[in-house]
Amino acid sequence: PGQVCVCTKQGGFQQQVPALSSSKCQELANHYLGFNGWSSRIIMLQNVSGFDGEKEEVGKASQKRSLKFLCALEVTLPNHGVCSRGVALGEADAGSGEDPLELLMATRRAQKLAVGKALSGAFQKILLVVLENGKVAVEYNSSQEEPTDSLTEEELKGLVQV
Fold it and tell me: Any idea where the domains of the chain sit in the sequence?
């Protein structure tokens, strides 16, 4: 038995709550589910720079380049039979793109940002219910379901390729 409090007054609180960062999501998952209680895997990490209609002009070498990576990631909680996907875009400034080290660092920043946002997006659809006795129940929040959740890996990869 547990106490349940029912809210009788509805209204006024319609603001968007910011998502937790990927590191906070991992920290909470490790605390409540244990280190072996969940896993994540990257389904796809693809460079999508230049596909948004940008036109590079010859002779504008000083123009800053932007690197963009699209990531699709899956979070699985095997003990609870829950699986959730997240999709996100990460972007980083690559400067002029002439320095290979600068380009490499910008690529890594964009990839890391895309993976982090996708992980956070996947965890946003998972509800952890922590009871007083310390037990944890997990539910998939279907109200935030996205079309990418029902696609197979092959369909997902085909969906984002250009």
Answer: 22-49+65-159
| 79 Cβ contact list (under 8 Å, min separation 6) | 33, 37
Q: One digit per residue, pLDDT tens: the chain, 162 residues? A: 666 666 665 555 555 667 889 999 999 999 999 999 999 999 999 999 876 655 554 444 446 788 999 999 999 999 999 999 999 999 999 887 788 888 899 999 999 999 999 999 999 999 888 888 888 989 888 765 565 565 666 655 555 433
- Phi, psi (deg, nearest 5) at residue 122: -70, -40
For residue 130, what are the β-bridge partners?
A: 136
DSSP of 26-95: HHHHHHHH-TTS-EEEEEEEEE-TT-SS--PPTT-TTSPEEEEEEEEEEEEETTTTEEEEEEEEEEEEEE
* Cβ 85 vs Cβ 43: under 8 Å: yes
Instruction: Name the helix (H) or strand (E) containing 127.
Output: strand 126-130
Sequence-ordered list of residues with C-beta below 8 angstroms from that of 28, at least 6 positions apart, any chain: 20, 128
